[in-house]
Each structure stands twice: as C-alpha cells, then as structure tokens.
Amino acid sequence: MSTEITTDVVVIGAGPCGLFAAFELGLLDLKCHFIDILDRPGGQCAELYPEKPIYDIPGFPVVTGQDLTDNLMAQIAPFAPEFHFNRMVNSIEKQEDGSFKLATDADEIFHAKVVVIAAGGGSFQPKRPPVENIEAFENKSVFYSVRKMDDFHDQDVVIVGGSDSALDWTLNLQPIVRSLTLVHRRAVFKAAPASVNKMQELVGEGKINFLTGQIGKLDGENGQINHVHLITDAGDLSLPATRLLPFFGLTMKLGPVADWGLELNDNTIKVDTEKFETSVLGIFAIGDINWYPGKLKLILSGFHEAALMARAAKAIVSPGERVVFQYTTSSTKLQKKLGVA
Amino acid sequence: MEVIRDWGLNIKAECGGALSCATCHVYVDKDWMDVVGAPSDEEEDMLDSVGDVRANSRLSCQILMSDALDGLKLTLAPSAAKD
Fold first, then answer.
1. For the segment B9-67, what is each residue's pLDDT rounded down to a tens digit?
2. Which strand (E) or helix (H) includes residue A100?
3. Fewer CB within 10 Å, N or C, chain B?
4. Which of A51, A144, A251, A254 to mutate to test the interface with B (most CBs of B within 10 A)?
C-alpha cells in the first residue's frame, strides 16, 4: 500500500529557489514537503557545479554551489521542511475541493493545497551515449547504474567513462564478474587518484582490461548485447560483452512535467509575474523552469519569485486570513518563528 | 554557443555557458582548427561526459566569438542535441 502524506505545500525540486521558497512559506506558517530526484538538496548547484564559484548572489561576493546550498539549508532549518529524495513526481491531479493529489515513483501519495514546481531544467537522468539502438538494450543488458550487484555476476562487463562512478564500479564489480573491460576516451581520469591507482594495479595484474576508445555500436538481440564495438585510435574492434555500463554523468529532462496540463513555452512553464502561478490555479512555478516576458534564469530572480509566490500560496491555504507584511529585522513574531527571539 | 542557441538550432546548452555540462559540444571544421585552438584542461575533463568526442571536438560555450572567427564552420555533435 502506498504511503500517504498530507501537507500545505509540496515543492518539487530542492534546488536553491525551491529551498528558499520554504523560507518564505515558513514565515507565513505554511508547511513544506520537498520531492527531488537527486539524493541530496541543491539541484544543479550540488550536482553540476558544487565546487564552482557563483559571483552574482546578492550579498555574497563569491560562494560555491555547495556552500550556497548549505547556507540555504541552515536558513530554512527553523521551519523543519521534510525531504523526500531519490524520487520523481509522476502525476498531479486536482481534486474536487481544489487541493492536489501527487503520486511519486516511490509509491507515495501526497495531498497538498498548493504545489510549487521548482524543478530547474527538469529531472536529472543519466546521459545516454549517442549510440544507435541503445534504448533496445537498456535495463536488460545496458545499465546506467548498478542496482543489484547480482545482475553482473559471472558476466562479461564493459564499463565506459573516466569519472568516479566508472572507476568505483570497476573496482567493486571486478571480484564478481567473468571479465571486465574499462573503456575511456583517454588515459586521463577525473576520479580519485587512489581509485585510479588501484585500477591500474588490476590492469597490471591482468585482472581487468583498459582500452582507450569510445562505443561505436552494439550487437545483440532481444535486449541482450553480445558485442560492443569500440572505436579506438588503433582502429575499430569488437569486444564480446554481456553487460554494458556507460557512466557519462547526468542531464536534465523535463520529464512528466510536460504531461500535467500546464501551459508551456518551449520546455518551460508559463506563469504570471504577480504570483508566479501557472495556468492551473494553485500550481506555481519558480526558478529556471518558469517563463514570463523578460525572464532571466538567475538564482536571484528565483528568490524574488519565491517571495511573491508564498503570499499567493498563503491566500489559498488560509483563505480570508489577513496577512500583515512584516520585516524579519523588526518583527518579533517572525523572529520567534526563526527561533531567534 | 549563444549564437547557435539564439538562432534556434538544436543545441541543449544545459548549463548556459558555465563549462559544467558538455551539452554544447561541436566539431570544428578542419580549416578552422588552428584559429579556434585546443580545449583547456577543464574543457577536456568536461568532454569526458560525452560519448562522441573527436580530435576536433570543442565545447562551443568556450569559443569566444571575434572578428578573427568570422566565417567559422562548426558541426553540432549528436550529444549536444535536445531530447
């Protein structure tokens, strides 16, 4: 049976704009639950550029993606938002009373009065290498992650990539496979030096193979590969293989958002600039995923959008309640909510 | 990358030019290789995240347009295409 959770607001996406929304909503006493496909908060800041400096956050001459995420998490901590990671919202249905029912791919149902889509560029998915017919083999003999080690037991495995994921799985799977070949386009790895050394030791001992090259084509039938064709500097070669693990990082796909009946503008969601509400009353969109005339995909714009959205969300969750505009610098009420007064 | 994107060509350019994603991958025409130059180390690292790298691969967000590049010929790599 699916888990059911009832809350004021569900925020889809725990990137910087979504996180700050929990602050603005929290000041108005609205409770948030986050749903994110990644395994941690921060969105693109954490996944694409955790170590890269950002120079255009007001008040921070320079801050890294990870530090910005950590600071936002500290800032919203007084409101105790709840996080549901590693899952994706599949569907949103408007109920007769105007509230929403959301279903995730982790078999949960969320009931919320307001939905905030802060999903950036969509959901992160593994990058699919540009290889013809690869879809036909996916989840049968081509995998983008290792869910069950058993699937690789006694198999002829080809791992492609030069990242930590590629190296980690080379080392983890080596003891249980029949053969393992690591393929990378060059002999330079952007991975932990200890893993690279260990991999090179295994190559030296003849326990694994390493080839520089790229995947050209896959042979097989009924979803089961039998050969991986490689394009290498030394010419093309065909490698017998029963499992392929390409590790090329993540990319963003709009995903199910496109099917929620919202008015779109080329992979972004149309909103108004007063409330940042979508074409569906009660569903808001903030940050990189929304569009309006003059839109700039900046984190600071998303922060502003979150503040205005929160006022409109409050009016939906607590209709008729008068909301007095207050400043955190002077309002004891707000300071109490923040736990500082 | 901005020029390619703003003309509505099929380029994902996911990170918007931050050298963080490799979805603006292009092949530089052989006559232009010397003028455009080689990728930086960081760009080479980023190119590890696509499966169709060639000797003339560059990330177009790292090619700064100038008069010297007037007439530049590029081919969009399959890995740069939108879904």
1. 999 998 888 898 899 999 999 999 999 999 999 999 999 999 999 999 999 999 999 99
2. strand A100-104
3. C
4. A251
